[in-house]
Amino acid sequence: MIVDAWGQHPTLRHAQHEMFASLRRWNRQEAPTEQLPLSETLRAMDRGGVDRMLISAWHGPGAALISNDEVAGFVGESGGRLVGVGSVNLARPMDAAREVRRCAGELGFKAVRVLPWLWGLPPTDRLFYPVYTVWAATRCACTAWHRPASTLRDRGLE
Length: 158
Prior knowledge:
Elements: E1 3-7, H1 12-16, H2 21-26, H3 38-48, E2 52-56, E3 58-60, E4 63-66, H4 68-77, E5 82-86, H5 93-104, E6 111-114, H6 129-138, E7 141-144, H7 151-154
Parallel strand pairs: 1-2, 2-5, 5-6, 6-7
Antiparallel strand pairs: 3-4
């Protein structure tokens, strides 16, 4: 079985976001004007021989570009091929901790992902402590990716 462990099914908000402008230029693509159907992601998985994919919500400073509820909807429509991975608003740590519980319980997600680099913080920042505590209590997997050279070095944490 082949599992893609780092996927997203983009919402229109996500696909149109300015942070992806250079990627669109590199691929010579315009920003989409319509939501990509889930069937396209599933067909791409078929073409690549991918049996299952973990799809992530995406919450950064400012807003959710792919919400946990949207991911839950995609998972529900996928016939068991997609596995939900949540994301939380780290600007509100206690709300984020409650959302991790909801992801693990109500939504049935197997992991919650945060991107410390997106928030300009090292993964050891105290802002993450409530989220890490709930991850441990719910046994929901934790993925906290960081850019090893930038956020850690800037704070003397290498």
